[in-house]
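Progress against Task 2.4 (sequence-to-structure conversion) is shown through the following example record, which the project officer requested during the mid-term review.
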Amino acid sequence: MRFVVVRSSAPGCEPNCPEWISAEGTIEAGTPALLKRLLKTLGGRQLPIVVNSPGGNVDASLQLGRMVRKNKLDIAVGITEFSGCSPGMKNCRDNDAKGQPYLGVAHDSGAMCNSACPLMFAGGIRRVVGEWAYLGVHQITTTYQREKLLYRTTYRIVNGKKKIISTRVVSRRNAGSYKTYEMSKAVEKRLSAYLKEMGVEQGVLSVMKVTPASDIRQIEPDDMLEMKLVTSPDSLDLLTEGTICRRQPAPTNCREIPANAAPAAVAALGAEPSPIAPVPTAPVPAPAQQAHEQEMRFVVVRGSNPLCNPDCPEWISAEGTIAAGTADELRQLLDTIRERRLPVIINSPGGDVQAALAAGRLIRERKLDVAVARTDFLDCDPGAAGCVAPDGLHTGLTIDAGAECDAACAVMIAGGVRRLVGADARFLVHSMGMEDKVRAYLDEMGIGSGFFAAMQSAEYAKHRELSRDELKTFGLTTGPQSVDALTGATICRSAPRPENCRGLPATDAEAKAPAKL
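Structure tokens generated for the chain above:
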């Protein structure tokens, strides 16, 4: 787990913006020490924690929960979306940015607090889980390590009896290990006492005990309220929304920074902190600017939500600007996965119209579904230096909030067999060249003439955003569903089973699954 201080980058919140601690990743034995070090740098400021974790070490989770309670911190389940530099980037921030908060926004779509994470979560003063976040528990897995010891014992004979003088271990040898999937009485007693200490009902423990270690039981919002695991039905907006600092009095996690003033230094701590090297003092580009500069890349992704294991959906992430070689790169990737038909999840500011036409025809030729959404990678960002996915398969989640399909991207989307745009994704169009070719292409794809008219009615410099109702009326979308219909955690349980579902072999499934409690 990595801890960093984040300041909201929501438009209009400056100069007084909320700040929080982003806590993302697996809880390990050394995680409490990292949080303790970061809290020391804050000088007593009480910032809420926004956590996104598959779980991990039980003892460490209990320590974290007690630390959160001792420091009187609030907590919410959510994902922090960084603006510009993110903690995993190298050579991104210049010297003046060292020690300052990262910038970003928090959302709960696709966020999780599973396995051991709810034990940490229980330590918060205010505890909130939004309707789009997952909080799940299951039975404890305990691993016992065997050792074979060789002793040397010194003794003497006194009155015919052996009297031991000393005993010492002269060698140790690993004798294997074994796991148990049931909670021992001692562990149950310890967890029960902890939940009572935190003011949480014992129902949480009951759900843990009856849920197999190989599964995850999501606790519903009403049940969390009844168990007192959450303190209100709010979402993390209660703690991180850009407008909360306008309240009177302002929340304690708000901090005003006058114009042209540099914020005080704060820390970013993680299990493997990345070095920050100086770069020229140019402004850091916003994510939208970076998306325009980066050519579209294609990556095969496997769903990382623990609710799907061991049979999870897979998809092709397509992010960036459509360039001349985009269709060729997509064809190369499709050739590597052969007959498998994976949906294409697109997030693009547009680009080369000719290339979009070629990519759209390739998508229709291979009978692929498409959706507008972003892919949040849980292992590492494919664009980052040194990011290599095992077996070429990254893990992640799809989110339509903040995703866009702009200009020529609409042409590429039109090639999909099923075409989905969620409520939180943005779909923008404007007039473009090659009118005859685009009109003929849309007709070939079975898209109504109203869509072409809507595109051409918007001036090139003035994008027009289309609503979901308009997209449905024009025939561009094939249904009201969002990207979850193609990549959601539970789709592989439906009948018939979607083609993009794949169960990993038992050994791989255990290795790739998030850490158990």
